[in-house]
Every structure is written in C-alpha cells, then in structure tokens.
Amino acid sequence: MDAQQLIEMIHPIVDDGEVPGAVVGVVHHGHTSVAGVGHTEPGGATAMTADAVMRISSNTKPMVASVALLLVQDGVLHLDDLVEEFVPELTGRRVLRQLDGPIQDTVPVQRSMTIEDLLTMRMGFGFVFESACPAVEAAAAAGLGFGPPDPSTPFSPDEWVDRFARLPLLEQPGMVWRYELAFGVLGVVLARVTGKSLDVVMRERLFTPLGMTQTGFLAPPQHLVPAFAQSENGLVLFDSAFESRWSTPQAFPDARSGLVSTVGDLLQFTRMLLEDGGGLLSPESVAVMTSDHLTAEQRSGPSAQAFLDGGGWGYGVGVTDGKCGRRYGWGGGLGTLWYSWPEHDTAVILMTQVLPPSTELFDAFTNAVEATLNPS
Description:
The protein has two domains: about 5-60 and about 200-375, DD-peptidase/beta-lactamase superfamily (Beta-lactamase); about 65-195, 3-Layer(aba) Sandwich (Beta-lactamase), CATH 3.40.710.10. Helices cover about 30% and strands about 20% of the residues.
C-alpha cells in the first residue's frame, strides 16, 4: 500500500468538489510515501503539493499528549499529580448539581482533577449534547473556545485559566468523557511545569527531535494553503493563506487545536509511535497512550457517542478494535485524519482544509485502507 494507491481511490470524491484538494501520507512496513491530488482552492489552478502546510486543529492533541508523557518519563510530572498543584486557580472546584441547572447551584468536588483526567478528557467539563447547559453557554460567552478552531484569542494562558476557574465543573472529575476543554488546561500545565511557553516546549521536546520542521503554532505563509468552510452556496473561504490567523504569534498557544503541519511531519510522528517510541517515548508510554482508558458507561455517554462512535479513548487519541485489529489515531475539524494499525505496521494520513470535514471522504479513505489491509 502506498499514498498514490489511496489517492486513486479518493480521486473521484475530490473531482466531485467535496474538497478542492488533498494530500495523503502512508507508512507501511517502514516504507513512506506521500502524494497530492487536486488544487488548493475551488476552481483554482495551483496544485495541492505534498509539502502543503495545513491547520491540523485537533490533531494537535496527540502531540501534546506525547509531550506530557515525555515529562512523566522525566519525573517532572506524574499521572496522579493534582492539576491544582500547577494551576492553583482551579483549587476548590464546585460541581453543578444538575447539568441543565443554574451555574450557582453546585455541590463540592469529591476529589481534585489529576493529570490523567486531563489526558483522558474526564476533567469534568466539555461539550454537552444531551441538554441545555448554562455553564457551557457561560464558557462560550467567556471566550474559552467552543466554536471552530481560532488561534486569534487575545487571552494569555493565565487569563484563559482565570476565566475557566470562575465556572463550576459539569460533573465530578473522572466520571464522564467530554470533549475537549481538558486539553486547554493540559497545555497550561505543560507550560507552567517547564517554565516555558507551550510552543517552545513542543518544539524542544517533540518537533526538533523528530525533525518536524514545518510543525508549530505559527504558519510559514510560503507553504500554507487556504482553508474553506462548507455553506449552502458551496465552499467559502474560512482562512486565507497570506493573511491567515495562524500567521500571527498566538497569545494562547492552544493545546486543543492550534498547530499547523505537513503530511511529511505527521508521518514522522506516527512512525515514532509505530516504532515503540523510536527512542523518544518509551514503549510503555506508547502502550498507555494508545490503549483505551474508558469504562463501558463512559463510552456510551452522549459526548463519547458523538465523537468516538462507540470506540474508546487513550491519551489524546481515539482507540477502536475493528476488522483490522486495534486502530488508534484522531482527526481534526478542519479536515485532517490520522489512523495507525500497529498490527499491520501501518499509519495513514489524509489532509484537507475544509470545515467541517467531509464524512464521505473520511469514510471512503478509511474503508479503502482497511480493505487493503484486510482484503478478505
């Protein structure tokens, strides 16, 4: 299996205009390949090249989780450390008595949230699908980020945390899986425990060791492609290439969704995981990161059903057992997708720049890979 083979399988969907262009990367039994198809914008003349820089939104999370585990390996962090040790603003949390109740109607927290609660997104706050929730409405109004990825928030990490600390938790820590605010807090923890901004921590601990030269919180405009949003009138511009919101240094480097990258760089990251950490992460860290940590009840919750579709969650990655064995990886809301199948020594990446992602394209791509891996 190689990238060009997968490109041919998705070529008709690109030609139909679901996305203007795409780049595919494959690592299969140690062989790496990259290929592009289509153009950088609808009806455009500029080809989508293999070195295109794109906004990877939630594919940021697995990388942040990896850096957290590197700090655990160093003994700087421990999975059972209390978050309030590093973010004292979150000491003495209160918890909503009822999810759809007023934010003033609370009970005391039963235990403090831990680093592992952040990694597993069981912090006690995130997206709510099952009812109205005034606390989430207040979080959105406070600018904590409940919409499309946007790096232009004016808040510093300290201001962001301060605004979050004014709100109660939705549930007791450790009880419910909810996307995705926990990784915002995790990014603050990593910066504070190292005494460096998150962009520096990520570069020093992960990007430089892996040779990921095009990955970061600041986009190089010479290779950045525009991003688009689906609308009733077709695709409309969401973020341009040369006046991008990602081309200005971020006041709050967002551990949830702030990075840009290329297929080549992402392949370096996925290859490291397939190689049991490649001498960077330990095999034990890779195993714990890519194993499901949710209970059956947590996997069946409304937020988990919406994002995990019956699968589980490791540290920054979704985990699924399917016809090709265990699969782990994650996607980004601006049209990026990564999966690895460790039993097949295979990782694949699909990168587009359309919000929300094309489910038709994602499904066709994943089905094509799995049909190749398991032709029976």
